[in-house]
Amino acid sequence: MSQTVDRALSILPLLAEGPADLGRVADRLGVHKSTALRLLRTLHDHGLVYRQSDQRYRLGARLFALAQEAMENLDIREIAHPHLVRLNEQCGHTVHLAVHEENEVLYIDKVDSRYPVRMYSRIGKPVALTVAAVAKLLLADLPEPERRALAERLDYPLYTSRSTPNAPAFLKELEKVREQGWATDLGGHEESINCVAAPVRGADGRVVAAMSVSAPNVVVTADELLTLLPLVRRTADAISGEYSGRTPGPGPR
Hints:
Low-confidence stretches: none
Shape: elongated
Order of helices and strands: HHHEEHHEEHHHEEEHH
Structural class: alpha+beta
């Protein structure tokens, strides 16, 4: 049975390359045409493949519907949380996960620092759009017209002397973030708090979330925190791989 399932599933990446006739499918699987036909018929019955008028087979619409449904039901927080915990265990600092929803960037997960001095932030709380590292990553991924329109309508409160002062400066910062693929907030929101962040991407390459490590100056300096950037980026890449299906998550136990 497992061999039959394996063979049936092997047909799907073949058809992803383009329509194929029965002979090509049989050759790719290394089976007789009658066996390939039975597998194709089963996939056809479930809407996963479609037989064209030229007798070639292509991927069926049901497969795309299932993929879309699966993507809509993915819980980025559930996928990311074990990675955030592991990162927190490695570095000891506060770890956040944030998403962009309805013109706000919100924290959707947090793992607290193990140090006595902790950050005042909570799940569900909006972040400061013009200075927060996670916000910069999420907004930098917007198409340019949307970025410009957003920048023009935002206020630019001067939380500290390092806060982003105006729309031109914000757009310049977003372009920099977009090019380098990571972001920082080095005292832009609170003088004593620094943050480094990396993007979580979906299968299409778009940024679906952003994760960060934050710490106060009394625990580590900004330069010391920046040395964690490779680790933060590796963690974000691991979450991206699992979320997009490029790497498997934990299997059945």
